[in-house]
Amino acid sequence: MTRYLVRRLLQIVPLLLLISLVGFVIIQMTGDPLAAYTVDASLTGEDLVRLRAKYGIDKPVPIQYLNWLKNLVTGDWGTSFYTRKPVIDMVFGRLPNTLILVVISYTMTLTIAIVLGIISAIRQYSILDHVVTALSFTGLAMPSFWLGLMLIVVFSVRFKEWGLPYTPVGGMYDHRAGQSTAQVLWHAILPSFTLSFVMIARYTRYIRASILEQINLDYVRTARSKGLTERTVLLRHAFKNALLPLITLIGLSVPSLLSGTVVIESMFAWPGMGRLFWEAAERVDIPVLMAMLLFVSVLTVSSSLVTDILYAAIDPRIKYD
Amino acid sequence: MIQLFWRRFKRHKLALFSMFVLLVLMAICLIAPIFISEDAANRLDYSVMRRPPSLEHPFGTDDIGRDMLLRSLFGGQISLRIGILAALIAVTIGILVGATAGYNSGLIDNVLMRLTEALLSIPTLFILIVLAKVIGQSVTVITVVLGSLSWMGVSRLVRANVFSLKEQDFVLASISIGARPGEILFRHIVPNTVAPIVVAATLGVGRAIILEAGLSFLGLGLQPPTASWGSMLSRAQSFLLDAPWMAIFPGLLILITVLCVNFIGDGLRDALDPHSLR
After folding, report:
1. In chain A, is it the N or the C terminus that has fewer CB atoms within a 10 Å radius of its CB?
2. Cβ separation of A19 and B213 shorter than 8 Å?
3. Crossing angle of helices B245-272/B13-35, nearest 10°?
4. Which value does ipTM take for this structure?
5. pTM as predicted
């Protein structure tokens, strides 16, 4: 197992290097970081040359990449071209905001999906089951941002018209009320729910299928014949086995969740990392983009590794070389 | 064989119904343009801006007076086309990569699989955002890009199937009469793995449609005045207060289309699965 771990960890570094290299090259192609400045007539050609030298983008691309890498290894993530603040501050400043959304989403998702999935499975073919299945199918067929728009229309726009308490449309908190936990949570409801809905649909179906599969296995029949109450049979045996594969699902969902936050944060004006990425892409703010690329890649690769390890730790049947 | 498949497919009432609905939808989207020119759909009429659904404009009008129903139809044409073609591209690449990897285990298999994993590790949205700026935003580009990012799942499926199939006797028989590996692969093995591929392709269409909608929504997809359901939704964002129907209908159409596609995929899976006896 340790050998497997070491092998995986050794594979991570070249993979990350490759991703960062490819990413760097592609970013270079997207545009000129100084594009905004070239419109300003008061800047002469000399100024632009000077700016380029200052930012280090006058050098050939491989040199730029190596410079970036060199800085990174010494802990310097660079300075944003746009805000001229250290990139670390920018990225990690926004990280908590995105984390809030992500944590709330995952909590919502797991709670709702597990409950619905279990009930659906236990009472298969009941009306509740049919409703849940129909909703799941709908959720899987829906673009999540459209759901966000619909929620805004109903809960922010129409509720206000009808005089009902309405949810805020954007931002993390109301500037007049100041930033408090209650404010943030209130503002987080719609975005988190939008993020979660598709996940809830997918996980509910998966849990339901997984539990149904377990219930029909022989060991459940054995447990029942031993005289255990149905509750014990399900809780102590069937569910544990059924929910295990969920770990893999969750681990694999991390990358797509990050893409989801880009859209949702933009739509709800939530100041998180997704939105930062979007803004940086618009402005070709290379240091910020590279930092985010690195961050996301590390997250993806490590979540995949952690998932594998967790799975092996919990399921005694799994052995790696 | 085909009759057996049809009989089993017809048992799945929901899938049948979905296929019908989807065919009707596709027919409308594809035929309507013959009778109504694209100009009519894009005709601006400032006197009817932001009207709610009515008899004259069943889906309402948008912010510059275009009829939403017609725009939805044209948008549907484009979204459907992109979805289907992208899924086809993804499946083709997936079959090629998966079959090659599965048949030639060893170095080729390893290399191809590492490549697949590496591609999976790169955050998709990142690539999409960057590619959109670099290559440009046309229907062809988007189709190719979407297809090139979705083939990984299919290739894994195909590889697993090829692995198990290549041990079978009919492969041995083919080798013994001197068939070349390419022939064996694509004439004999791959046709036997058709079932999961078809299912994956169908579900892939749904996924591609949603992806395209997302891309256009972010502004990375098609540019105005080309309509697709996604770009219509993007435009609708600013008018949620005045004209929510601008957002409701395109999204609803996406929902219905993808739902039907998913049901058909489910029906196909049940009908083609040799293990289920129903």
Report:
1. C
2. no
3. 130
4. 0.80
5. 0.81
